[in-house]
Design brief:
With 283 residues, the chain is of the alpha+beta class. It has helices spanning 2-5, 36-54, 73-88, 91-96, 130-141, 155-167, 172-175, 178-188, 220-228, 232-240, 255-261, 264-273, and strands at residues 12-16, 23-26, 59-65, 97-109, 114-125, 147-151, 194-198, 214-219. Bound molecules: zinc ion.
Amino acid sequence: MRSFAECGQNAFVFESVDRPGEYSVGGSACHDRFCVPCSRDRSRVIAQNVLEQIDSRQGRFITLTLKSTSEPLRVLLARLTHSFTKLRRTRLWRNKVVGGVAFIEVTWASGSQSWHPHFHCLVEGRYLPRRELSSLWFSITGDSYITDIRFARDNRHVTHYITKYATKCLDHSVLDEPEHLQEAILALKGKRLCLTFGTWRGVCLTKRIEDGTWIQLGSLAHFLTQASAGDLQAGSILDALEIRYVISERGPPSPTVTDVSGSRQVQCMLNYNAEFRTPWDVN
Ligand SMILES: [Zn+2]
């Protein structure tokens, strides 16, 4: 809990040796699966690896959902995973799908007061008729029809999809309710949130792709202090990183900047707007 709470503190600014003028920010990372900045960092890596894996072959996005029931999430997740395993053993699936990756997403439907777990998959293979998949999914699950199939248009489409679903296994319907969050964390304990199948089985999607050597320029707090005191060089580096700062009218750096520099708020802002890099990822 402490490393989760302190995730992103002690942030440092790095500059690429190979591409001078390219900056990034790194800090202590908790690597917890429910930490949003850490998940964003991880999902970017997964998206890069997925692109490398799918290369120029045709990809399709498939959503497999379960009908909402009042059952506990743990039971529904087990049923979803089991049904997906069964689906992958069917003739239709094996004829049309070569391999792929699936991500679990869990939402809470406040209207029906029930859990709604589903799989978002990217599959490599041939045309898969939606009606056939839907009726097959119904025969496996016994009560669920809903499937969705979309064509992956290009690399950007794939990156967007993967980054989205590899980041959030839980959305605000779960995160905003402590009671739901607790049930979800317990139900997902030990469960793989991302699974590969077919020819993709065993492919490591979290492998870091090398992007050269980076040097540490100093702490982010130092850059914020310098920039807020009017230092143009520090300011231009923060601008390049899309990190906001306030230039104080006179004298010492403004308290706003000092206050914000160690907080979660900056951490989130950094990771939404700039590249996130942990010190141990840097050569
Ligand atoms: Zn974290």
